[in-house]
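Q: What changes when iron/sulfur cluster is included in the input?
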Amino acid sequence: MKIAIASGKGGTGKTTVSLNLALALSEVQLFDCDVEEPNCNLFLGYELEKVEDVMCSVPVIDPEKCSLCRQCSDFCPSNALAALPTRVLVFPSLCHGCGGCTVLCPEEAIQESQRSLGLIEKSKKGNSPEFYRGLLNIGETMTSAVIKKLQKHIDDRKTAIIDAPPGTACQVIASIGNMDYCVLVTESTPFGFHDLKLAINVVRAIKIPFGVVINRYGLGDSKVEEYCKTEGIPILLKIPNDRRIAELYSRGIPFVREMPEWNEKFLGMVEAIKSQLTGGKVERT
Ligand code: SF4
Ligand code: SF4
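A: The predicted holo structure follows.
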């Protein structure tokens, strides 16, 4: 099963849920898809090794062969080419590497070169959970390409936990688009409630089964719970606004490591997800 952990905004506890869930399970892979600032390994402390570079093909135009026909710039869906009266300009940082311009060019004036976007790293053998993360180069914008490459390492024989980037933009779609289930993490505050509704719109639009985890439960605003009940959205888990959990977090310790009773709760959450996917009853408190 492939489970994405997402949230409408940062700081709701998405990484906390991803880490503690992965640590409660066996035969599991954890993927940090927040490639702009992956932080799972701050808590795991694994020694990581490089798996591969993430590259993108970008066009290089031979001015000797180019007839300035403009077919490439008219086609480019990323506006990475600009045909001027005397030459074609290429903007590599806008190019998504689709290769269309190379195929279209009637003069065979376009060659492709490789541009580095980032890299994929993984934990050394023997660590549980097995951990992978993507790292986007500083200043780079092609997050989705790194996320797609990262998810190629999902082993279908194991449970995959995907720590998605925060928000509702394209990198979130790239992270959760091919998942079996999406857990939306929120907190019981007006801000958390507002952004949860945005995230719900996304998962509904791409038709992924989902449920909600309320983090820092008891902060005072009960709108999230009421909304989920009205909409028939399962609340999979409530993590209380507990000083001990916050202290462990601030020391970089996933709380299932010091509070073993939470292992059962996270395992119960997975059972509730399985039950939901097979059409069973999912209500939990
Ligand atoms: S490879 Fe695709 S995105 Fe890049 S310049 Fe060519 S047409 Fe545009
Ligand atoms: S399609 Fe080829 S020949 Fe036409 S403008 Fe682009 S590079 Fe030049």
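Observations recorded in class: Residues 2-46+127-277 form a domain with the Rossmann fold fold (CATH 3.40.50.300).
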